[in-house]
Amino acid sequence: MLRGRGWRRLLGLLPMGYSIGHHTLVNYTGRRDAEPPGWATSLRGTADDLVAYVPLVCLLIAIALDFGQLQRSKRGMPTVLLDAERAGRTGTGALAGFGGRCLPWTAVIALRFARMRRALLYAAGRTDPERLELLHQAVADTAARIDAADREGVWNSGRIRAHLKATRHSRPWRRRWPLLAIPLVLMLPSLLFLGVGSFTLTKGLQESFTTGIGPSVLMWFGIAGLAWCVVQLVLLIRAWRTTRGLLEAHGVRVFSLSRDCPEVDAFSFRDRGIPFILLSTEKTAERGRFDAAHELGHLVMHGEEQVPHGPQAEGEAHRFAAALLMPAADVLAYAPRNPSTNWILQAKRRWKVAAMALAHRLHELNLTTEWQYRTHCVELSRLGYRRDEPQSRLGRETSQVLGKVFAALRAEGIRPADVSRDR
Predict the structure, then answer these.
(1) Angstrom distance (rounded) from CA 244 to CA 253
(2) The pTM is what?
(3) What pLDDT, on the 0 to 100 scale, is given for residue 270?
(4) What are the counts of helices (DSSP H) followed by strands (DSSP E) for the chain?
(5) CATH number listed for the domain at residues 243-325
């Protein structure tokens, strides 16, 4: 209710006002235990009687406001409605009918669609429409697919199981399950300690946690959990570090290509043992990062004197850049299996890479099938992500060395014009 507009926002203050008033009244009467005023005793008794009903009333008001917001948003976004809803059925009835077509798969699709659509409808009117465009398009596309599949003869359980069995050979979970199992194991003692509670039947288990080596076990598991969080944070920071800063920190000279060479994206070379990388400034920040990592792959893998050329060298540098910017451990821990195109468009911001590069990396790690990868490429091309990154807010990385050099010069009172004259 506090997120509402106008008078609706005031309704969100009701439960807080009631709680503050009730707390104040209890303290007031508690100070006058000997002889509290009659009005205070009566008012407190009324407040105690209503304390169980106030949350329920606030919940009903919130449900009513939420329902009204959803209905208004549906009228403003007819493309997210299902054909069954346009025919007069309720949203719950339409999704329940589709969800029962071929359990459990259609039920999962229906629940996921309901969650996405509710998020879109609830945000409508409160968020800039441009920021909701991708979500709106994803919900509309899913609604169209549900309508196309909501009929007899489309769903075949045997065919679905055969397809899942055919794609199970990749088994990305074999590489991902340790990343999920480690935090679960680390949380197990704490969850068990919280689960035993204060029950009489678990008295012996409670004592084992609070006496002897029990506290030490909890403490060491807690330390191990913190260490695991630090490891994950380090991996995340490594994935987020600026590519140009990483190159310059290891002695690579990074320069920009002239605008007179639009046909060249990037290239690298060594001069008397010093590595150089030249990058185009006409490309988006995401593609510039990948080009820098690609050229670093050439410098690392193809020797000082060897001039990389041919599909094999380019493929090696491409895989190097993908592994550097999108580490396998991080992608496998974060990405779901068979992600949607909309998920790729949202997740590319995590690794600051192009949507096409992330789609290829997901397929490379066997998180998508060949058919899904081709579908992602077609959809991304249709949305303009083949050669560009529409609506990208990522700024291009700049040299950190030059900034530090000029800062040091300014500290010594030397101006750039003085350096130019000395040159």
Answers:
(1) 9
(2) 0.47
(3) 79
(4) 21, 3
(5) 1.10.10.2910
